[in-house]
Amino acid sequence: MDFGTAKLHELYGVVGVHQNYVAKAGASVDKLLAEGWLLAEDAQRVLTEADLRPVP
């Protein structure tokens, strides 16, 4: 699903959108890792992809 800029701003704010996105992705990854839903290497891949993903 592709979100438009307005939806991304609604979810992650207007200032620091990318940083907020990465932080929220990181929190989700940490939770999933702790619960055993992700392996460490998969968690790292998700975090790297979140960091590289351009968020308007």
Fold and architecture overview:
The longest helix has 18 residues, at 17-34. Helix content is 70%, strand content 0%. The protein has three helices and no strands. It has 56 residues and is mostly helical. Helix 1 (5-12) crosses helix 2 (17-34) and helix 2 runs antiparallel to helix 3.
Tell me the layout of helices and strands:
Layout: H1 5-12, H2 17-34, H3 40-52
Helix pairs in contact: 1-2, 2-3
Short description:
This protein has 56 residues and is mainly alpha-helical.
Helix fraction? 55-70%
Could you tell me how far the N terminus lies from the C terminus, measured between alpha carbons in angstroms?
15 Å
The secondary structure category is mainly alpha
Strand content: under 5%
| Major sheet details | none
Uncertain runs: none
Average pLDDT taken over every residue:
85
Shape: elongated
Order of helices and strands: HHH
Question: What does the radius of gyration come to?
Answer: 12 Å
**Would you report the number of β strands?**
0
Count of runs of 4 or more consecutive helical residues? 3
Give the key terms.
56 residues, mainly alpha, elongated
